[in-house]
Structure formats: structure tokens, C-alpha cells
Amino acid sequence: MSALASGSTAMGQATAAGPSYTAPTTVDDVIAAMATGSRVVAGGTDLVVGSRQGRWPVPEHLVAIHRVNSLRGIRPVVDGGLWLGATATHGEIAEDATIRERYTALADASSIVGSRATRNVGTLGGNIANASPAAETSGPLMCFGATCMLESRNGRRELPLDELFSGPGRTVAAMDELLVSVSLPAQPAGTGSCYARLEYRRQMEIAVVGATAVVTLDGGQITAARVAITSLAPTVRRVPEAEAALIGSTGDRAAAERAGEAAAAASLPIDDVRAAADYRRAMAAVITRRVVQAAVDRARGETVSIPASASLHGAL
Amino acid sequence: MKYSATLRVNGFSYPVTIEPQRTLLSVLRDDLELTGSKEGCDDSECGACMVLLDGEPVNSCSYLALQTLGREITTVEGLSTNGDLSPLQKAFLEAGGVQCGFCTPGMLISATALLARNPRPDDEEIKASLSGNLCRCTGYTPILAAVRSAVEMTAG
Ligand SMILES: Cc1cc2nc3c(=O)[nH]c(=O)nc-3n(C[C@H](O)[C@H](O)[C@H](O)COP(=O)(O)OP(=O)(O)OC[C@H]3O[C@@H](n4cnc5c(N)ncnc54)[C@H](O)[C@@H]3O)c2cc1C
Ligand code: FES
Ligand code: FES
């Protein structure tokens, strides 16, 4: 209970009578509220913004999770991987030294979400749970082999991120399941990564087309590769054909082009106000090729500044 | 159901009784009558509603008022001291960074946060930190000049 809140109703109890709000400090209290139908709000940059745009009303029963300490932060774990709390903000991710060095594609992604104000309150958990086919962080997370921890009154379960999304705006998580954290495994030595989007302006933009590449070089050859596409299918998804095109190559331009063609072939783009489907498919090849080349450059220890979207601009 | 709570704005405590769906902007303007923060788009695109929450910019049009309990809010009204404009505010007036004035509160909030964390930003940093603030009048050049001149005034 906040010291500044006055009166017994300050932090709220759901009443059948009307709207309710609670802002607990523990995961147990959050999942108890979710079990009785309250909807999670973190930064509100999708949930509340969507209501201001008239897409849906602000849910009647809200549980705010910004006060739960155990959902916060970014921490290295013993096996060399990384733990990210669900309420880690894009601003924190973009500035985290470990992420910039070892999970660079994720820093590329978070640093171009909205504006500074969006990144200041917008969270990783919200970006994932909102399940937009254009969500910036999903491609990098998938390519790094992320798993997410879900918790409800029925217990916890851990799920690979690429099994979470079931359609635009839809996940396999139940309504009463809280996304607690995301874990990234350690990446092998010689790994470089990059995420970039085709954008019409540098900030306050939604990916017209996005692509992620994570490659591992050993003795000048690509020994492991992961590629994902964004804004090109009903969900962000990996492209195994593009990955296969890279493995065994030196990561030269020809291999990057083959990966780009595979990404374009795997795309199921839509026509909308931002781009025609044909244009999206054509650009899938270009953006994928660029991120592969930048990931290879980074794997070799060369500097490609973060966010890559800005530095790859015009790099035809 | 309404909730009673106390908001901390510009160093003052304001008791309010509000529904949980209310945004911070609507409470600031309609309940506290602090009308400096503007409603431009009401969906987080323009930055006219920007305020500082614990020193960092937030679009108040899409942030729930109850989520600010226990935290410090600064609106444009809180940038001056005893009626004296801040160096940044003076620079905006002198450089012609204010025309219709609708974007000005948000511009000042973004620029204030920038200068607090980085007293000597370069042009790229200034532009990036103002990228969530739209202006329909000035063409941005005088706003950039205003921030630059405030940097010179305060960082020497
Ligand atoms: C101006 C603007 C620009 C934007 N630009 C981008 C962009 O460039 N790229 C991009 O990807 N996104 C962008 N977004 C979207 C948004 O900012 C991000 O998706 C952000 O990460 C959402 O996080 P949040 O904490 O604000 O989510 P909220 O709005 O609080 O929540 C979003 C959804 O997730 C649910 N949820 C939140 N946390 C959890 C949890 N821990 N467990 C279960 N469910 C949860 C909520 O119930 C809600 O349904 C933009 C938004 C705005 C307003
Ligand atoms: S009114 Fe809030 S961003 Fe436009
Ligand atoms: S001065 Fe009119 S919108 Fe900026």
C-alpha cells in the first residue's frame, strides 16, 4: 500500500459493482487478481493507447504490475545467459551493456521502439504479450533461443518464445497467465547479431518490414545461423530455409542474398496503408540480406552502430 | 468504483477521487486544472501531453493516473521557479521556438529531461530526444536552436 494513498480504497479491491484497480507488489497478488478477471497493465503503451485510438475500451478490472520488484531488471545468470524481468523497459534494454555486447540485435530492436517516452514506460513483457506481427523485440528474442516463464494460479510453465504466438495479437497463454520473465541462453563465442527494419522515419515508426540474423562464425565459416522475419507474416517467425542457406558459407554477399531470397519466399505479407504486399516481399530480401551482413560483420568484431536501422539506411 | 489517492505534482500534493480508467492527462487538466499539458492526438503520437514521471518523459494522455501514486510528476508549470522561467524556457522565447505554443510544453519537458541527463548534447542527440514531439508551426529549426542556446547558457 502506497504511503501516499489515502483511504481504504486507495489501492483498490475488485468489487462486482464497477471498475477496479489494484497495484500489488508481489507476483502472487498479481496472479490472484488475474484469476478473478483483472487485466494486466504495465506501461500501457499498447493497452491504454489502443483504447485512446478507439480499438478497445480500457478493461474494467485492472492490475498494474509496475510495483512488483521481482518482475524488474536484467540479470546475467550462472550459465552465461541472461534473465530479463517482464517489466524491463525498452530504455533499460537499449542501454544494458551486456545486451549491447552479446545480444546486440535486441538492443537494435528496443532502441527504435517509439520515442524516449515510449521506451521509458513500454516493457518487454507488454511487447511480447501484445503479440503484434510487427513487435520489434520478438525476432531477436526468438533467434537467441528465448524462453518465457508464464505463471498462473495453476503453477508455472516455461515455453520457447517461438511457440508462444498463435496469430496477430494472439498467444497460447491463458487470460490468467502472467508473463514473469524471459531467459536467453548463452551464445557461443564468435556470435554476431543484428535486427533492422525498413522504416519511413527514424523514430515513432512501426516496422514496414523487419529482419533479424544471429550467426556464429568458426574458422571463417558460419556454423550456426538463425533468421526471423517481422511484419511479414501473421506472427513474427523464424525462417529455417534462410538459416540453411547460411550454414557452411563464409557469410559473403552471395550467401546473404540467398538467405534474403529464402526470407522473401517464406513471407506472407499483407497490403495496408504502409506498404503493398509485393513491396514488402521485395524488401524482405533486401532487409534480410543487410542484417545477415551486419551480423557477420559484428561476429568478426567490426562495429556496426546501434541501432543498426539507422546505420544500414541507404546501404544498398 | 472511484479511488481516492494523492498525486504529487510539481512538489505539491493533490488529493483526487477518480475512476481507474482515467488518464493522467485528463486528471491534470480537468481535476487539478493544470492546463499547461495539452491534448494533441490523445493516442501517444504527438507529445503535447508530455510530463516528467520521476524525471523521465511520459505521454500523460495514455498513462493511467493511478499508476503515478508514490511518484513525482513534473508538468510544464513546474519548470519555472517563483515565476522565473528556466534558461531553457527563455531560450525557446528568444529563438522563436514558440509559435502557436501547442507543442511547447511537451518540447520543454523532453528537452528538460535531455539536459538533466546530458548537459552537453550534440545536434543528433537533441533531435533524437525531441523525436516524440511534433510541431506544426516552427519547422523545428528554431526549437533546435533554442535547445542549443540553452546548452551554451547553462553548460558554459
Ligand atoms: C507512440 C508509440 C510507438 C510505438 N512504437 C513501437 C515500435 O516501434 N515497435 C514496437 O514493437 N512497439 C511499439 N509500440 C508498442 C508498445 O510501446 C510496445 O509493444 C511496448 O513494449 C508495450 O509494453 P507496455 O508495457 O506498454 O504494455 P501494456 O500496454 O501495458 O500491455 C500490452 C498488453 O500486454 C499485456 N501484458 C503486459 N504485460 C504483461 C505480462 N507481464 N504478462 C501478461 N500480459 C501482459 C497487457 O494486458 C496488454 O494486453 C509503440 C507504442 C506507441 C504508443
Ligand atoms: S496528446 Fe498525448 S501524445 Fe498526443
Ligand atoms: S509552435 Fe505550434 S505546434 Fe509547435
Find the count of extended strands of chain B (DSSP E, 2+ residues): 5
Rg of chain A computed from alpha carbons, rounded to a whole number of angstroms: 20 Å
Number of helices of chain A: 12
- SSE string of chain A, helices as H and strands as E: EHEHEEEHHHHHHEEEEEEEEEHHHH
Beta-strand residue percentage of chain B:
15-25%
Mean pLDDT of chain A: 92
Per CATH, the superfamily of the largest domain in chain A is: CO dehydrogenase flavoprotein, C-terminal domain
**Percent helix of chain B:** 25-40%
What ranges of chain B have pLDDT less than 50 throughout 5 or more consecutive residues? none
CATH superfamily of the largest domain in chain B: Beta-grasp domain
* CATH secondary-structure class of the largest domain in chain A: Alpha Beta
Key descriptive features of the protein:
heterodimer, A: 316 residues, alpha+beta, Uridine Diphospho-n-acetylenolpyruvylglucosamine Reductase, domain 3, Enolase-like, domain 1, 2 domains, 5-stranded antiparallel beta sheet, 4-stranded antiparallel beta sheet, 14 strands, 22% strand, globular, B: 156 residues, Ubiquitin-like (UB roll), DNA polymerase, domain 1, 5-stranded mixed beta sheet, 34% helix, binds flavin-adenine dinucleotide, binds FE2/S2 (inorganic) cluster
